[in-house]
Amino acid sequence: MDTWLIVGLGNPGPSHAGNRHNVGAMVIDELAARAGATLRSHKARAVASEIRIGTLPGGAPGPRAVIARPLSYMNESGGPVAGLLSFFKIPVEHLVVVHDELDIPFADVRLKRGGGEGGHNGLKSITKSVGTRDYLRVRVGIGRPPGRMDAAAFVLKDFSGAERTELPFLLGDGADAVEKLVTEGLEATQQVFHSR
């Protein structure tokens, strides 16, 4: 059974920890908690842990996966991702990137393989470093900024009070989507999450 690399995007440091832009990294923390795993420092400028992800039909543990958060800033995510793929000898077809998505309403999760980056600097950096856009994405909706607020400012703000009460459900959905994606495939997972 092949190994997967699941990377959650965000910016490093406590000042960014609650930002909307860090929701991908938060999903990785949720997956680590589910697996009882501790993310440890890796030479690829990331924190990572090897786990079994999800459960196969019949109850057997799911596939092997490396879950990771780059320690670089968002716009330099590509270096750590390429480094992890190389170190663990994982093909880019088994790369899953979990990231925030402005074009999806808050609390919705969508999945796709490939496509554009929609101005997302983390995705642009990964595409450049791995040499293809053809990797899997779990897109965690954070909604559009209110009024005339700049999108760049909006993603670097923490979730609102109302959003924070919903956040555990959103992170749970993000982690569920990752688990289903690696155990059952893209189409089956899209059918569940895109029909909500």
TrEMBL record:
Gene Ontology MF terms in the entry: peptidyl-tRNA hydrolase activity; tRNA binding
The EC number(s) this enzyme carries: 3.1.1.29
Catalytic activity, reaction form: an N-acyl-L-alpha-aminoacyl-tRNA + H2O = an N-acyl-L-amino acid + a tRNA + H(+)
Record-marked site positions (Discriminates between blocked and unblocked aminoacyl-tRNA): 11
Cellular compartments annotated: Cytoplasm
Biological process per Gene Ontology, one example term: rescue of stalled ribosome
Originating species: Oryzihumus leptocrescens
Active site per the UniProt annotation: 21
Site annotation Stabilizes the basic form of H active site to accept a proton: residues: 100
PANTHER family referenced in this protein's UniProt entry, alphabetically: PEPTIDYL-TRNA HYDROLASE
Subunit structure: Monomer.
Family of the protein in this entry: Belongs to the PTH family.
GO cellular component, one term: cytoplasm
Superkingdom of origin: Bacteria
Gene3D superfamilies noted in UniProt: Peptidyl-tRNA hydrolase
Pfam families from the UniProt entry: Pept_tRNA_hydro (PF01195)
Family matches, as InterPro entries: Pept_tRNA_hydro, Pept_tRNA_hydro_CS, Pept_tRNA_hydro_sf
Task of the protein: Catalyzes the release of premature peptidyl moieties from peptidyl-tRNA molecules trapped in stalled 50S ribosomal subunits, and thus maintains levels of free tRNAs and 50S ribosomes. Hydrolyzes ribosome-free peptidyl-tRNAs (with 1 or more amino acids incorporated), which drop off the ribosome during protein synthesis, or as a result of ribosome stalling.
Enzyme class: hydrolase
Protein name: Peptidyl-tRNA hydrolase
